[in-house]
Amino acid sequence: MAEADQDQNSIFAPNYDSAVTDRSKLGEFAKIAAKSRRPIPQRASVTKSQDGTLLEKVEISVSEQEKRQGASAMGMKDQYTVYLVETRTRDDSKGVSEAGPTALWRRYSEFELLRNYLVVAYAHVVVPPLPEKRMTIMWQQLTTVDNFDADFIERRRVGLEGFLQRVASHPAMCAEQIFHGFLEQEDGWKESVLATGFQAKQDSRLKSLNAQFRLKKPDRQFEELKNYATDLQSNITTLLKTRAKLADRLYGIHKIHGNYGRVFSEWSGIEQEMGDGLQSAGHFMDAYKDYIDDFLSEEEQIADQLKEYIYFAESLKNVCRKQEVLQYELERAEENLASRSLQRDQILGTAPTKAFSLRSMRSKIFGPESQEAKDAQVKLLEDQIEEGEETVTKATKEVESFMEKALTEVDRFKKQRMVDLKEIFINYAILQIKISKRGITTWNSTRDCFLKM
Predict the structure, then answer these.
(1) Is the pLDDT confidence value at 158 over 70?
(2) Quick one: pLDDT at residue 60?
(3) What pLDDT was estimated at residue 452?
């Protein structure tokens, strides 16, 4: 009889590696995750910064969200969501200003305006991305997408909080007065941002495309960075698609057990001797069906943290595009200087003249130019050459300075990426272990119900 029970146990209980389900191993994973924790958008709280940044002095949170209605341009009601941004000092440190703790409501569009300004003002920085503006299809098979869905709004709130904390932990952006105004200036903040004229300084898309396709001497380091950003986007996108397929399949497997639970419950009304056991088994099947919702919602939050790095890769590409624009402007300045120098040398006779040039045709038609006219042209060209040399020198310094600061920021980004991705994958592994352990418990309880019949 004992052997029969042992055989039945082997049928109902899956064989899991003890190293995976051991609680001590799970504790080690949790310790590693806690040790490497850093500010990422999906965290409600972050590690206190120790490098003199704003985050070391104040706590920044987006604590609430609220749906409001306003009148649109057509006179129709316009629904939107606002978020409560709160700042308070840490211990005895001085906060953003002498006013002390502040709390004010901000719309998503204001977060966008802040980030757009930072992208222009700190072009060499891999500026943190914002969470999604619109809801995308997640692991559920949604027939409609509701941008006011409570879960989506909550995930966006956490993402906005993480964005502010990342900016506050950056050594340069944390001192930006526009950022301080966002945290404490309730009225007139948008006007103060627009008054900076940052939009006029923003490189146009056409200018970026010209720089990309007409650049003669692209920098090898930034070409590699562009490829790295593309690969990062591609790899994370593939990983998220695979995770979504697995989550969808797991979701379906759990939900189909609701049918088993219903069958066992109906069956229990027919069988007298096995009725209690079947009823209990039905309850366990229902529990197996229901608990997956909470686990997959938690998994979706982890996926949001991973998705952030898709947008981080786009920020990295923006830095590379800015370098291309600056390099392209330098090359154009060098070409202009070389052209003016050649014209001067041709007039002075120290450089060969093209057989069919405008100057040679004019000489043949109107005769040779006077010495005074040549001297005037040479003087004008020498002034232009001097101005061109200053432009090249300035452009060269600007490119070199940008590249030095950008590469420093890229190193900082890569270090942060390693810390964040390590924590994300550890948390994902811990969640999968929790799901597996919960499933084992449910199936063991169901097995016991059958064995007692």
Answers:
(1) yes
(2) 92
(3) 64
Among 5-19, 261-275, 295-309, 367-381, the least confident range:
5-19
Give CA–CA dist 291/429, Å, rounded.
18
Residue % of the chain over a pLDDT of 70: 73
Threshold 0.85, pTM exceeds: no
Sheet holding 58-71, edge to edge: 58-71, 77-89, 102-107
Give the model confidence (pLDDT) of 210-230 as tens digits: 777 788 889 999 999 999 999
Helix H, strand E, coil C: the string for the chain is: CHHHHHHHHHHHCCCCCHHHHCHHHHHHHHHHHHHCCCCCCCCCCCCCCCCCCHHHHEEEEEEEEEEEEEECCCCCEEEEEEEEEEEEECCCCCCCCCCCCEEEEEEHHHHHHHHHHHHHHCCCCCCCCCCCCCCCCCCCCCCCCCCCCHHHHHHHHHHHHHHHHHHHCCCCHHHCHHHHHHHHCCCCHHHHHHCCCHHHHCCCHHHHHHHHHHCCCCCHHHHHHHHHHHHHHHHHHHHHHHHHHHHHHHHHHHHHHHHHHHHHHHHHCCCCCCHHHHHHHHHHHHHHHHHHHHHHHHHHHHHHHHHHHHHHHHHHHHHHHHHHHHHHHHHHHHHHHHHHHHHHHHHHCCCCCCCCCHHHHHHHHHCCCCHHHHHHHHHHHHHHHHHHHHHHHHHHHHHHHHHHHHHHHHHHHHHHHHHHHHHHHHHHHHHHHHHHHHHHHHHHHHHHHHHCC
Mean pLDDT comparison of 96-105, 128-137, 430-439, highest-scoring range: 430-439
Mean pLDDT of 154-172: 92
Crossing angle between the packed helical segments 220-268 and 371-451, to the nearest 10 degrees = 20
